[in-house]
C-alpha cells in the first residue's frame, strides 16, 4: 500500500527521527506500539540485539482491545534496551532533532508529536510514558499500577510496570484508557477540587523555565475554580528515587540476568551493566526498598485525604542535547537520566496514576510538561484537570506550535 498525503509525510518524518523499528500498511485508525508489546505476527525485539526476542503469536490483551475498537498497528516504536533508560538512543526530538526525545517510550511520543499516528501505546515503570511525552509536547497517562492487563508485554519491573496511552490531549488519553480496560470514575466539580503543590520536591532543582510554566498551569487551575495549596512529602523527597531505582535493578535482574549470562550477545548497551548491578542487590536491600515504597505510598495517600491531586513538573529540565551526559540543576551538574527521573519517581514508587500534559514552551521553544498525580483509579479526575491546563494560554500556544510543526512536515516532505 503506497503512503500518500499528510499521514505519509508524518510517518516519513517520524522515521527520519528514529522513532520506528518497523512500519506496517494496515487499515484502521493509525496507532504506534512500543517494541515491548505483542501484536500478533509481529516481532518483539525489546530494543535489544537478541535478549527476549519473540514473534507474537497473539495480541497482548490491551492491544486486542484497541484493535477491536478499530485501531491498526502501523508502526513498532523504538525503545532502549529492555526499556531501561529515560532516553531512547537514536531517536531525535521533533522540536529539535539535535535533542533527546526522552524514554523509554521515546518512539511512541515522537509518533504522536509528529502526527504520524493519533495514539501510541507505551509502558511506564519509572516514568517511561511521562518523560518522553513531556519532552515531545504531548500528553501521556500512567494508569494506576496493577489495573490494566500486562500479559503479552515484556516485563521490566513487575511491581512498578504499567501500560498506557500517549496522545495529543488529556481527553484522548482518558478515552483510550477506557478502551484499554481502565476504570473511569466520576469527577468532582472543579470548585470542589483541591490540588497540592509539593514545591519542596523541585525547589532549587528545576529549570526556571519549567518552574514558570508549571506555576502558570497552577494559575490556570486556580482561575477555573480549583483550590491550590502547598503540601509536604518529606519521605518521598528523601527516598522515592532510591527506592524505585533499587526495586528496578533487583526485579529486572531477576527477570533477565540468567538469560543474559547464557548469551551475553543479547545486550549491547548500558542495560548489561544495569543487570549486573541488579544481580548484586541483596534481598535485604530490596526488601528495604519495598518497605520504603509502602511508606511513601502511605504518605502520599494521607495527603490525598486533603487534596484531589498533586501538581508538579514532569521533568525538571527541557530536552537535553543528544550528546549531553549531564544537565545543570541548582548550579550543579546532574546526570541526564537522573534528572529526567527526579520527579516521575513519586507516582511510580507509590503505584499512583499520573498524567503529563503540555504546559507550554520554554524561551528556546522546547516543550515543558505539567504532571498530575492522583489517588488510585482517579485517572478521570487527572484528565479533567489536565484539560483545564491545556486550555491555558501557554499550553494553547504549544498546541498551535505543534500543529504548525506538523504542517511544516507536510510542506517539506517529498
TrEMBL record:
<dbReference type="Pfam" id="PF01425">
    <property type="entry name" value="Amidase"/>
</dbReference>
<feature type="domain" description="Amidase">
    <location>
        <begin position="8"/>
        <end position="383"/>
    </location>
</feature>
<dbReference type="InterPro" id="IPR020556">
    <property type="entry name" value="Amidase_CS"/>
</dbReference>
<dbReference type="InterPro" id="IPR023631">
    <property type="entry name" value="Amidase_dom"/>
</dbReference>
<dbReference type="InterPro" id="IPR000120">
    <property type="entry name" value="Amidase"/>
</dbReference>
<protein>
    <submittedName>
        <fullName>Amidase</fullName>
    </submittedName>
</protein>
<dbReference type="InterPro" id="IPR036928">
    <property type="entry name" value="AS_sf"/>
</dbReference>
<comment type="similarity">
    <text>Belongs to the amidase family.</text>
</comment>
<dbReference type="GO" id="GO:0003824">
    <property type="term" value="F:catalytic activity"/>
</dbReference>
